[in-house]
Amino acid sequence: MMLNKNISAVIIFGLLIFCSCNQLLAQQRSLNCTQKLNQAEDMFDAGSLSEIPELLNGNRGKCFNKDGFSKEEKIRAYRLLALVHLFNDNGPEAEDAVINLLSADPEHPLSPDDPIELKYLFDKYRSEPIFRIGVKAGANQTFIRSIGEFGSYSNSDEVSKEYKSGLGFQAELTFEYTIIENLEVLGGIGWSLNKYEISYNSITSLEETYPESVSFNVALTETQNIIKVPVMVRYGYTFGNWTPYATAGISIDYLLNGSMSGSRSGTTTRQLPSLALLDDNLRKQINWSYFAGIGAKLKTKTDFILFEVRYNMGGSNTVRTKYRYSNEKLLFDMAHVDDDKVINSLSVSIGYIKSIYKPKKYSNKKLEKRFGKKKNKTDE
Fold first, then answer.
1. What is this structure's pTM?
2. What DSSP letter does each residue of 147-201 carry, written as one string?
3. In CATH, what number does 131-356 get?
4. pLDDT tens digits, residue range 117-163?
C-alpha cells in the first residue's frame, strides 16, 4: 500500500512539473515574440529595414500563430511589415501585409503622419464590411383598429366593443447592406407575439325595451403568433460613436397560430377555454403590414448596439369574413361576432449588429470610379 501511495505521489508531482514547464515555455515564447516586435520597431526607427521581415517571420512565422503575438501585436507587426515592404519597393509583399492587417483589424485607421504611399495602398483595398447581420428583441403593445362592426344581433349598432392593448414580444434577424453612405437596405425574418383583449355588454341597448333582461358581459383575449418577412430601408447620420436613424418598410406576415379564450356572464356563465382560430377559418393566415420607426446605433469597435422604437400598421383585414358566423361556441355560447379589424402594434427593441468583413483589392475600374483617373495612375 505504501509503495502504491509513493508511486501515485510521484506521478502527480511529475504532472505538475510538466504543466508548469509548458506554461513557462508558452510565456517565454510570448515574451520572445514581444521582444522581437519591439526590436523590429526600434530597427525601423533607426532606418535598418532589411532584417525586419526575417526577424518577424522567423521560425516559419511562429509569432503570427496562436501562441505568438497578441491581437494588438499582430496589428502592429502587419502594419510595420507593410511599411517596410513599401520602402523596400516590394509591392506584392506590402499588399499581403495590408490584407493581413485588414483581416486582423477591419477599418484600421491611418494617422496624418503615415506616408502617402501607405495611404495610396490602403485605398486599393475594400476595408468596409460587405454586409452586416443584426438581431434584436423586445416588447410590444397591440392596438386594434375596427374597420367594420358586427354583433350577434341584427342591429350592429347595439354593440359597443372596447379593445384593450395587451403586452407581447417580438424578435427579428436582419441582413443589412449599405447602398450609399448613410443609407442601408435590410431584409430578414422576424417573430411577433401579439395580444389584446375585447370586452363589451352585448345587449346593453335592449335594456329600455326589455328592462328585466340580463346583460351579457363578454370578455375575451386573443393571442397571435406571427412570422414576419420584412424589407426596409434605414437612413442615419453619424455623430461620434452614435448614429441616430429613421427606418421604414413593409412586411409579409404569416399567422402560425391564433387562439381566443374568455368568458360570458349573464343568465349563466359560459367559459371559452381556448379556441384555435385557424382551425375554423376565422383568421387569414397570410397578411401584410407596413411600419416606420426611429432609433440609434452605438458603435463598439466595428459592431453596433441598437435601440429602436417602431410602429407597425396592419395593411389588411385579419378576419375571414366568409366564416364570421360559422363557429357555434363564439356565436351562441359567447354571443360574440368578430368585427373586421387590422392589428397595429408599438414595439421597443434592443439589439446587436455584427459587421462581416472580407478585405479585397479593388479592380482598376473600381478604383477609377472611386478616386478618378488621376488617383488610379498614381497607384500604378
1. 0.77
2. EE---SSS-GGG---EEEE-EEEEEEEEEEEEEETTEEEEEEEEEEEEEEEEEEE
3. 2.40.160.20
4. 888 888 888 888 999 999 999 999 999 999 988 876 645 455 678 99
